[in-house]
Specification:
mainly alpha, hpI Integrase, Chain A, 2 domains, three-stranded antiparallel beta sheet, 3 strands, about 5% strand, disordered N terminus
């Protein structure tokens, strides 16, 4: 292909240059040289894909049956509508900025959808269908400032009340594991609902979280199984192919019943991730190592955020009490 585009003399020069690199022990290939040349000149794009086709290909990375990918696609579709059948390269910084400003008034949703757009375009750069220079321009769109809101936590007494309530229910085998994985491992709600019992690996003393955040092809996250969590999961263990807990809608109804009976405020708008926050706060209090906590949560790049949120959120004594909550015998 290269010979079809270069004359004989240019092809010979290219071959000699590659031989010189090889003789010098350099592992750089001619393709690497070409790629660096393109990037140095603004990241020229080798392939052209329409906006619609690019979005379709991007969404193939996700499990379309899950809520998060559906929300992501609905959001990005409104951005792509601006250029539709045009090449993706037609999407510029101004288009993204106007889309964000026109559609998202709340600073939180503005920042969320800014992240959606940049993740999509970052992927497009890696696929060589969007110029690096244009992505760099888009990434200069500033986030909106969001007033700090402290995460919600449950103390050890509340966690124990919840676990004891769950133990008393007729469907405890489909209810207790959900609470246990949330409070004692910090696994995301959506991740728990995708789990089968084969993902609870008692021999390895860990939990395998497949497709974190619902992204297909993403390597699984391995979460350590504490002695507390192991005790709860062993008591309610089912066959490998069985789901770990009931579906999300059924769990929501059971949670409402629990809140009414125990007098617990669990408003999804304010503290929908309270189990994960509670675990993170307790883990930091016990180990004082935000890198270790970040690794357990799958947030290896957000250690400063973790420290700001959790460093002084939970007292060590309360964390020790929570992690000492064991299932009742019998």
């Amino acid at each position: 292909m290269l010979a079809n585009r270069l004359d004989v003399e240019q092809t010979l020069d290219a071959a000699n240059a590659l031989k010189t690199l090889s003789d010098a022990g350099c592992t750089l290939t001619l393709a690497d040289v070409c790629r660096q040349w393109l990037e140095a000149r603004g990241g020229a794009v080798a392939r052209v894909l329409t906006c619609n086709a690019a979005l379709d290909r991007y969404m193939m990375r996700f499990d379309a049956s899950l809520i998060y990918p559906q929300q992501l696609e609905r959001s990005l579709a409104t951005l792509i509508d601006r250029c539709g059948a045009s090449p993706l390269t037609a999407l510029r910084k101004d288009d993204v900025a106007i889309w964000l400003t026109a559609r998202f008034v709340s600073p939180k949703t503005y920042n969320l959808n800014r992240g959606y757009a940049l993740s999509f375009l970052r992927w497009a750069v890696k696929q060589n269908i969007y110029p690096r220079a244009q992505f760099d321009e888009c990434s200069t769109i500033e986030k909106h400032k969001v007033p700090y809101q402290r995460p919600c936590f449950f103390n050890a007494t509340t966690v124990e009340n919840i676990m004891r309530w769950a133990e008393r229910q007729e469907d405890a085998d489909l209810l207790v594991p959900k609470f246990a994985l949330g409070f004692f491992a910090g696994v995301r709600t959506a991740e728990i609902h995708r789990m089968k019992w084969r993902d609870i690996r008692f021999n390895d003393n860990d939990i395998r979280v497949e497709s974190p955040k619902g992204r297909c092809g993403t390597p699984p996250r391995i979460v350590t199984m504490s002695l507390t969590l192991r005790a709860w999961m062993l008591k309610y263990q089912l066959e490998d192919a069985y789901p770990v807990c009931m579906d999300n809608a059924a769990f929501g109804r059971r949670k409402q019943k629990m809140c009414a009976e125990l007098g617990i405020v669990w408003d999804d708008a304010q503290n929908r991730n309270v189990m994960r926050h509670t675990f993170a706060g307790a883990h930091v209090a016990l180990y004082r190592d935000v890198f270790k906590t970040a690794n357990e949560l799958g947030h290896t790049h957000d250690v400063q955020m973790l420290k700001a949120h959790y460093w002084s959120a939970v007292e060590r004594e309360d964390a020790e009490r929570m992690m000492a909550i064991m299932p009742k015998e019998g």
